[in-house]
Amino acid sequence: MLKIISTRFDQVFAYSSNVCSAKIALKENKKIFYKYLWRFGFGKKTGIDLPGEESGIVKDYVNLRPFDLATMAFGQGISVTQIQLARAYCAIANGGISYYTTCAKLYIKKPQNNNIKNTS
Description:
Layout: H1 9-14, H2 18-27, H3 30-39, H4 66-73, H5 82-93
């Protein structure tokens, strides 16, 4: 006998369930799925002030097949940059609000006394 298990979305996310992620994506309209990809910033540059930023790879909406949609749902049919992923996690942690991504420069002040003391 087949046992049906109900899983909440937060559990799917927390346990990184590929099967449940794929089922959710296939159940939703691909237009909605793509709307969220774009709102999270996947497939486009973040505008961070670093040279060489890439946009990642998101498959073309028009030619998307159900298999592509399913694999994109759990991260194997899509390519994102580290900054895009960090920005998406921050948006989730901030209740859905995404902030402009920037880099901060860190300056470390050298000690004025350059003498090295032997502590042994």
